[in-house]
Design a protein that fits this description.
Blueprint: E1 4-9, E2 22-23, E3 28-31, E4 36-42, E5 49-56, E6 63-69, E7 74-76, H1 80-83, E8 84-88, E9 93-98, E10 107-114
Parallel strand pairs: 1-10
Antiparallel strand pairs: 1-3, 2-4, 4-9, 5-6, 5-10, 6-7, 8-9
């Protein structure tokens, strides 16, 4: 039997304004080998770039998974393209999908938005 994994999703933002509101996804406990989607949305249409980060429990640093623009190709860092999929519905919303969750994906995931 597969053991449950904990996938935590919290959101932060990086931009030049402090009036942006992010809608967070709740923390998730998932079964190994399942597909997991974490969504992100904000309310500032001038923030065209959405970035996704992973912070593992044993690390104080965050690792960039990738970033992208609405209706455009998404850009991944290193090995992350095989494990994750980034999607953008529009400028205000996006999602990070873990293709097949395994224990190495137990982490806190951050969404960020920027003008560049």
């Amino acid at each position: 039997m597969s053991s449950p994994l904990q996938i935590f999703a919290f959101f932060c933002f990086y931009c030049q304004t402090s009036a942006v509101r992010f809608q967070p996804s709740p923390a998730q406990i998932v079964t190994e080998s399942t597909e997991v989607q974490i969504t992100c949305s904000h309310d500032d249409s001038s923030l065209s770039v959405m970035l996704w980060y992973q912070q593992r429990e044993d690390s104080l640093s965050m690792t960039l998974i990738g970033y992208g623009y609405a209706n455009s190709e998404q850009n991944y860092e290193g090995q992350f393209e095989k494990e994750f999929e980034l999607t953008r519905e529009d400028t205000l919303t996006g999602a990070l999908t873990i293709r097949s969750a395994n224990p190495s994906h137990s982490a806190v995931y951050f969404c960020a938005a920027s003008t560049q």
